[in-house]
Design a protein that fits this description.
Blueprint: H1 7-22, E1 31-35, H2 38-44, E2 54-55, E3 67-71, H3 77-80, H4 84-87, E4 88-93, E5 99-105, H5 116-130, E6 136-140, H6 143-148, H7 156-166, H8 170-173, E7 179-181, H9 189-199, E8 204-207, E9 211-216, H10 219-242, H11 252-262
Parallel strand pairs: 7-8
Antiparallel strand pairs: 1-3, 1-6, 2-5, 3-4, 4-5, 6-9, 8-9
Helix pairs in contact: 5-9, 7-10
The structure holds Dihydroxyacetone (2HA) and zinc ion (ZN).
């Protein structure tokens, strides 16, 4: 089957375009990776033409031999839907999880996303934490969450509480809360290590003054998670713009009642 005819590829392209339409991907901002299922690799393998091996820049032994879809470094989400074979790649990891090679895509040349170390280290953490259920890692630049990182202390608890309080669905959608990475130079191993540490605990990591990383099982859940966090942040920005303090909000006891009826466990550390 042609790569662009496969359902999982159509889902990937739709998610990238949805992110563009939300305004989260100015210029070449953001990146999306997907850990392919063995049967999906088999579906499209006849199209593969491997290029040379390149270092990942970090080591992800638990992902050895796996195949990923990855947006290209310097490529625009805006173009994914009209020029898919130029905008993203399918890559294969070697048997140590230290090198990758492009096997399809980026037809005009180029490399996978500059954030490949963060993506792959997050995938590795999630393979372990979810028994392989999570397959999607998504990085975007949504304006309202980024704005929050200029006015709140960069603490997991503060961001979790504010985001939960801004929309009743939030503690149900991300019951583990969110982690916050202080400002760091993007693209390297250090920020990848810091982010993947948070991903052991959370499905959402906020990069101060930069953007968000989210992890999920499929395109719908992962896009929906980003969308829910950013919607909540938008409400936070509106509330702060109207008044310096909230007049009323959802209380710790309200969250406990919600958790009981919706069958989710909310960490006590976020409920005092
Ligand atoms: O340009 O978003 O973090 C891609 C990025 C880097
Ligand atoms: Zn970014």
């Amino acid at each position: 089957m042609k790569v662009l005819d496969a359902e999982f590829v159509k889902g990937y392209i739709r998610m990238a375009n949805d992110g563009w339409e939300q305004g989260w991907h100015e210029r070449n901002g953001g990146n999306l990776t997907y850990r392919m299922k063995p049967e999906e690799v088999a579906q499209v393998k006849e199209n593969f033409a491997p290029k040379e091996w390149m270092p990942i820049g970090t080591s992800v032994p638990r992902l050895a031999g796996e195949y990923f879809m990855a947006t290209g470094s310097g490529k625009y989400f805006r173009n994914v839907i009209i020029k898919p074979e130029e905008s993203f790649a399918i890559i294969e990891l070697d048997d140590k999880g230290e090198n990758y090679r492009i096997v399809w895509g980026l037809s005009g040349g180029g490399r996978p996303t500059s954030e490949l170390p963060s993506h792959l280290m997050n995938h590795e953490v999630k393979v372990i934490a979810t028994g392989g259920k999570h397959r999607v890692i998504y990085h975007a630049h949504p304006a309202n969450v980024i704005a929050m990182t200029f006015v709140l202390p960069l603490e997991d608890k503060v961001f979790t509480r504010e985001l939960w309080e801004m929309a009743t669905e939030c503690p149900v959608v991300f019951p583990d809360g969110v982690g916050v990475v202080p400002w760091m130079v993007p693209g390297g191993r250090d920020i990848a290590v810091a982010t993947s540490e948070l991903m052991k605990k959370y499905d959402v990591a906020i990069w101060a003054h930069h953007g968000i990383f989210v992890s999920g099982e499929d395109f719908d859940l992962t896009f929906g998670l980003m969308h829910t966090v950013e919607k909540s942040a938008e409400i936070f920005v509106k509330v702060r713009s109207m008044a310096p303090e909230k007049r009323q909000t959802i209380t710790s006891q309200d969250f406990r009642d919600l958790a009981r009826d919706f069958n989710v466990t909310l960490p006590e550390e976020f409920l005092d």
